[in-house]
Amino acid sequence: MAIISDNDKSFKTFEGRNPNIKSESIEYDKIFESSIRPKDFENYIGQSELKETLKITLEAARLRERPLDHMLFYGPPGLGKTTIAGVIASQMGVDIKITSAPALERPRDIIGILMSLKGGEILFIDEIHRLNKVAEEILYPAMEDFILDMTTGKSQTAKTLRVPIPKFTLIGATTKAGDLSSPLRDRFGMIHRLEFYSIEELAQVVKRTAKIIDIKITEEGAIAIAKRSRGTPRIANRLVKRVSDFALVKYNGLINDIVANESLDILKIDAFGLDTTDRALLNLIVEKYDGGPVGVETIAAALSEDVRTIEEVSEPYLLQAGLLQRTPRGRKVSPEGYRHLGIKLASEQKTLFD
Ligand code: ADE
User: Which of 7, 13, 217, 266 is the most interior residue, by most CB within 10 Å?
Assistant: First the structure.
């Protein structure tokens, strides 16, 4: 199976956000990530419901000798959407072409990639909610009837050419399924949400990666890293790598819980896995807005982050961990969030009259 990555320009700004990792190392990070990606279901940890459904879907497509239905995977970044697409391609024995919606700006970008596909191949479009209208309209007949509608000539002399293309499978990935237009959403035969990983699953990811990069790790060490990985295997993998540097240089190359916790403290990843941006977000709401509610635009401006990064990267885990709440009037820090920051709620603070 060949993996052809069409254009990575959009990955750099958005997917690359990561605690303590500067932008210049993002390219290297992506290479590391793809080098440890599992290629089969046995090595793909977690998302068990999805795996079971996929095994059946793949087997049925093989028996019928038909291409797979188009699939949409959604959920927070780093949960393995690209990875599962790679597993599907390798299990079907077909190539996968990987691109992202912001790289498909001009009609010729999407037409070019559709025309380059061979029968049965998989086209993976990341951040598919960001496709523009023109690209979407080119995709509809391509997805439905494997036809490219192309216009030649101008205004009165314009002609529409209907060019057949080989049957392919589109796998779309998005962090914001709600932003997909309904005609596009309706053209996917399978829509699946990827879930955050449990500590046990993340510990398995950590041990697998440690083995691949040839570093010794104890069960307790793996769990310590898992606990601070925000439910996200991509973060777990990055942390294994950072902790393994500490282990190699300072601790004879073994990661145990003491080494893991000490290194992660130095990297300013706290016991919940929150990084400096997450804590700054919670602190801002508590200190400047009395715990909230406050609008996401205000939060983003105050933190000099863009709204998308706040909504799609920072918030999902804070919400799921119960540290933050979303209300119609904006975001609020929960009592659990106050406790995590070590700040007492107004109702818990003693007054002069107590
Ligand atoms: N790396 C990233 N996601 C993974 C997963 N689900 N299983 C194993 N390794 C991974």
Answer: 217
Q: What is the mean pLDDT of residues 193-204?
A: 97
Architecture field, domain 276-348 = Orthogonal Bundle (1.10)
Tell me if the domain spanning 37-193 has CATH number 3.20.20.80. no
Could you tell me the pTM of the whole model?
Answer: 0.87
CATH architecture of 199-266: Orthogonal Bundle (1.10)
Using pLDDT thresholds of 50, 70 and 90, give the confidence band for residue 178: very high
- Whether the per-residue pLDDT at 328 is higher than 80: the answer is yes
Domain boundaries in the chain?
37-193, 199-266, 276-348
Q: How many CB atoms lie within 10 A of CB 89?
A: 25
CB of 172 within 6 A of ligand 1: the answer is no
Between 110 and 13, the more confident residue is 110
- Output the CA 202–ligand 1 centroid distance in Å: 9
User: Among 143, 146, 120, which Cα is nearest to 67's?
Assistant: 120
**Whether the domain at 199-266 and the domain at 276-348 fall into the same CATH topology:** no
Cα separation, 315 vs 311, in Å, equals 5
Number of H helices, E strands in the chain: 16, 12
If one residue of 51, 82, 205 were mutated to test the ligand 1 pocket, choosing by the most ligand atoms within 8 A of its CB, it would be 205
